[in-house]
Write a sequence for this structure.
């Protein structure tokens, strides 16, 4: 998934909270901005079934 919204790549050390922008650079500190979307779901994940099973509330 790709998002047009970007977040400052250095926000954890420079800002008190994330700074979001639509540009390529942070408007406050001029650091590069990076994609704010989460990592995509990978259907070829070999261990996904085990992770989902461990998260489930009861036995299947």
């Amino acid at each position: 998934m790709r998002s047009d919204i970007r977040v400052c790549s250095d926000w954890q050390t420079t800002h008190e909270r994330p700074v979001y922008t639509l540009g390529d650079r942070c408007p406050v500190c001029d650091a590069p901005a990076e994609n704010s979307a989460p990592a995509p779901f990978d259907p070829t994940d070999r261990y996904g079934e085990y992770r989902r099973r461990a998260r489930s509330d009861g036995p299947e």
User: Anything to note?
Assistant: Residues 1-40 form one domain.
